[in-house]
Each structure stands twice: as C-alpha cells, then as structure tokens.
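User: Hey, quick favor. My workstation is busy. Could you predict this chain's structure for me?
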Amino acid sequence: MPEPSVRTVARSHWVVFAAAFAILLMAAGTRSTPSVLIDPLHEEFGWSRATIGFAVSINVLLFGFIGPYAAALQQRFGLRRVTIFALAVIAAGAVATTQLSRPWHLFVLWGVIVGAGTGCMATVFASTVASRWFVARRGLVTGALTAATASGQLVFLPLLSHLAVSYGWRWVGLVVAVGALAGVPVVLLFLRNYPADVGLRAYGGSVYGCKPSPSLKIATNTPMYTRMAEDMDFNAGAILDGAMTVEEAGRRIFELMLATASGQPSKSEALGFGADEFVPWYLGAVM
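Assistant: No problem, here it is.
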C-alpha cells in the first residue's frame, strides 16, 4: 500500500475542519431563531415577552450547562454519534415547535430539547475537533470553528426574518430543522472521531499523545504501519502476515527497547514530532 504524501495527509485534516465548520454553520440557525419568533408568538398567542424570554433563558442556560456533559458523552460514545444525535434533537425540537399552542410547549421544546441539542454543538464541539485533529494551527482552528456559530447567525437571521414576515413563523422552525438535518450526511461522510481512525496523526503532531520521551509505537497490522511508517517504530503486523513468529517479534521489540533506553532516538524523536503536544503549564487565556 503506498504511503500518502504530506500534501494528501494535510488535506485530510483540513477536510475534517471544513466539515466541522459546515456542521456548526448549519446548526447555527437555532441561535438566530429566538429574536425572530418573539413578535410572531406574541401576536398569535398573546404571550408576553417575559414568557417567551423565559423559554429563551432555559435554552441559553442549557446551551452552556450541557457542555461538560457533552464532552463526556463524546469521550464515551464518540464524537460522530453524539454530533448526529445532537443534530437530530435540534431538528426534532424545531419541527415540533411549529405545532406548539401552550407556553409550556415552548419551554419544553425550545427551552429544554433544542437547548440540550445546541449545548452539544457549542464550543465543546469546536475544541474537541481542534484538540484531536490539530497540534499546529490549533488556535486558528479553534477560533475559526468558534466563529462558525456567529457566522451562521449572520447567514440565517435575514432568511429567517424574511420567512417569518412573508410566510409565517412556522416556516422558521422547518428551515432550522432542515439546516440541522443537512449536517448529518456531512458528519457521516467527512467527520471522524480521531485521526488514527483513518491512519493519520494529528496535524503537526505525533501519533502519540504527548512529546515522546521516549516512546516506541508498535503497529498492530501492516496496513497501519505502511500508512504511518515515518512515525511507527515496529510492525507487529508481520506476525499476522506470516513473515515473523511471535518469538522473533518479541526479541526484536526487546532489542529495540534496549537500544532506545541506551539513547537511540525513536521515530518521533528523530523527526521532531510532538514537540508542542505536551504543555504542562499554559500561559495566558485558555478556551
């Protein structure tokens, strides 16, 4: 299997970044909707702005409160599954909002359900993608993904306002739902949990999670070793290929450990990978 070029590897990381940006952009319509719905709901149902504002407050509260729990769910179930679930929740809540008739419907649908969904798509999503996929350019990626939500509001707000005035406020919920659902195929096609899922390392970093000091990386199969040969120290997949016995592999790994302990640099150390990955003490603000 031919080894991917540096340009191909770099492009793969930026494809994931573009997919994450598009997902956040599509889900951003929910942040524009409250300001569009206040007057139409007040006119149709006679609800006070304080009542509508209370539902928006619940939404904003959950938007921030869900973040740490969303990060835990992403760690346990995977970034892709949690993202798809969040987009589906947003879409379901937005569609159901078109049928509301009581204030508590608004509290539950837009406040709790949509608020929980958007909480999973908040800054935690951007920081997870940036930290897993990028070492170099991590600040740029984090800033760009965080800005995607604001950019999405600029895109959706004029459209949603026009729909509410020209066709009625229920069309607003439908468009928000379509925008959220449009992110699902993007997740399925382009987003991955970790770079290692497609045989890559983080952009500008090592396959190991911090600066190797020292560490030896052993590939469990030959295709992985072939894709990542520049940063893998030993191919244990040769055992499965029948090219090496378990005893021979064990002896070579032991000899490699002795050589590394005696000062021979590992692949990552020799190439300088991972120098920016282990930072025990950050200076300045951290998002």
